[in-house]
Amino acid sequence: MTESNNNDVNQFDVSPAAQNLATELGINLEPLNDSSSKRKSIVGDREECQNASGNGNSLYSQKVSSDHHPEREKSIKIRRLLARKMEKAWQTIPHVYVTIAVDMTDVVRLYRELDVTINDFIIAATARALVEHPWVNATWNGEQGVELSEVNIAMATATDRGLYYPVLHNCPHLTLRQISTESKMLAEKAASGNSLTEDETSGGTFTITNMGMFGVESFGAIITPPQAAVLSVGAVKGEFVVDNQGGPNVALMMRLTLSADHRVLDGADASEFLGTIKSYLEAPIVLTEDGL
Predict the structure, then answer these.
(1) Which of 3, 97, 112, 197 is the most buried (most CB within 10 A)?
(2) What is the average pLDDT across 177-181?
(3) pTM as predicted
(4) Phi-psi category of 68—alpha, beta or left, where left has phi over 0 and alpha has psi -120 to 50?
């Protein structure tokens, strides 16, 4: 950002890449030259990051609206089960929260070409990060943290009946396309009511919960026992950031928050894990390769 000698007007240098991205997102950069707007942050078109992708699916695959809705009210049974589980988790697990900002610009450009969702990229990045940081993919056995041999990611899935946690098994061995296909199938089965099998809802070693579709920028979820951590995903929003040359640029930013069991993980563990996820999402072409 550079300021002219005229104190009445502030001029901003915006790179061609930033201008192209702003045009793609429908962001008007003209107010940057208006001194009355110099302290206002300009965000991208939220609908761009909430509406359907090319095949009509939401960017965030967990939020599913079912055409089959014999009862619109949340299931009392599901609410009671979830309430008991969350009460136990909150009372027995010492939570620590760590948040990181991730530049999702390249993911947003790439997901359209591949006909997948942003959440598919997040699952793929998380699966690889769990392999590199196995102490996050762990459980507390009453005396110490124990690393788990499989990486099975549970997806918090909101439906008309309540919240379900279908599980993607052996995630590191799945390609991005396989993750997309299976997560969509599981979300649709969850929306239909009782069609998820026991295997499809059990064995989760780590949970991802996404509230980006509601415009939530950042939040900390409660850990699902006996897991050691849960990843909370916020909305993708256009923001002005400082580039490597110290000038303003436009980027699509997202906040990830890891809620960790402090008996198993400390702040440094959580930070390193989130840093690995960030590195994958900011170079997403790596995630389009075959699973590990």
Answers:
(1) 97
(2) 96
(3) 0.73
(4) beta
**What is the distance between the alpha carbons of residues 148 and 133, in angstroms, rounded to a whole number?**
11
| Lookup result for tokens 């950069």 | 29
Would you tell me the crossing angle of helices 118-132 and 267-281 to the nearest 10 degrees?
130
Write out the catalytic residue numbers.
262, 266
- Domains by residue range for the chain, with CATH: 60-288 (3.30.559.10)
Whether the pLDDT of residue 246 is over 60: the answer is: yes
Alpha helices in 30-156, H assignment, sequence order: 76-92, 105-114, 118-132
| 78 CB burial (10 A radius; 0-12, 13-18, 19+) | middle
pLDDT of residue 53: 35
254: β partners: 102
Which amino acid appears at position 13 of this protein?
A: D
Find where tokens 């997309």 sit.
Answer: 180
